[in-house]
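COMPLEX REQUEST
Ligand: magnesium ion
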Amino acid sequence: MAVLSLEAVWKRYGEHTVLRGVSLVVEKGEVLCIIGPSGSGKSTLLRCTACLEPFSGGIARLDGEILGYRLHGIKLYPLSSRALAAQRTEIGMVFQHFNLFANLSVLDNITLAPMLIRKLSRQQAEQKARQLLERVGLADKEKSFPAQLSGGQQQRVAIARALAMEPKVMLFDEPTSALDPELVDEVLVVIKDLAQEGMTMVVVTHEMAFAADVADHLIFMDDGVIVEEGKPISLLSNPSNERTRAFLRRFLQQNKAVFEEQAARSSFQALSPRESEKTRLGGQLEKATTSEDRSSKNKARRPVGEGYNQDDGSFTLGGHVQIIQTATEPKIQW
Ligand SMILES: Nc1ncnc2c1ncn2[C@@H]1O[C@H](COP(=O)(O)OP(=O)(O)O)[C@@H](O)[C@H]1O
Ligand SMILES: [Mg+2]
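STATUS: Structure written out below.
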């Protein structure tokens, strides 16, 4: 059953057209990852889907309900601001820059919307918030303020805050791109955990290893259109479109320094992926292990982790996939 569907959606800002007829379907429990160059319209797509601003054309549906409009006869009428606000609460959004309320404690950040909008009592909201903090590995931080937390911790609070509204779908806009490299995995582990628990998600990301690992479906966007889509492995290993190939090539080139730094920094490469994850993330990973064991999707999930090999120019994804950098195009090997 489709939880989210976009049918030929367009977005224009004045003369500037940002989305040009994007269509996609996300089934219940499915993880859709979106990759693409900066400026291709990924954030706009998520913002409009989250009802933070309207599409200029096309139709978006959540659980069959049209977003932003009500259908009367054969005509669509814009929703009242109250109805729109209600619809917005069905969609969880996690931003690149966390966007926590700086003047509220971690606990208050999470309980605010459930109390105001879902009308939960403080006690109910706090009980739920504590469960969520436990789930994202931050049970001991409820009294902290955002400024007292690392970026990775703040992003995990932001995820807990979005989950507190029990959204039908979670949208992530490059949730790790503002983080220092060593904090990326602790956030990816939480998102992966959610995927394994069957949360329906759309994740815009530059973490190719993560996308290869967690996505059921991968979309490559450029210049406001879906250029190519498919199973992550086949799209990453055998892109059929020249624009996808060029993007992946550029991506590998641009991130070479990061991969080199990662390879030099840690000893985790010498360990098995599971061991390396444990080493790098400490207690967090115990959680990932358990959820992996109880994975409802029963898929062979691969751990997050990647490395760049200076000798042969290969880029290891999740310890299992290798993108081999060649003069013409990157190739992935399992
Ligand atoms: N509020 C806005 N007003 C005008 N142009 C915008 C606005 N938001 C985004 N854009 C433009 O839309 C294009 C796509 O932006 P964005 O969706 O942020 O891309 P991405 O997330 O893929 O980097 C860019 O050219 C950007 O300048
Ligand atoms: Mg963006």
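REMARKS: The pocket of magnesium ion (ligand 2) is lined by residues 42-43, 173-174 (CB under 6 Å). The radius of gyration is 20 Å.
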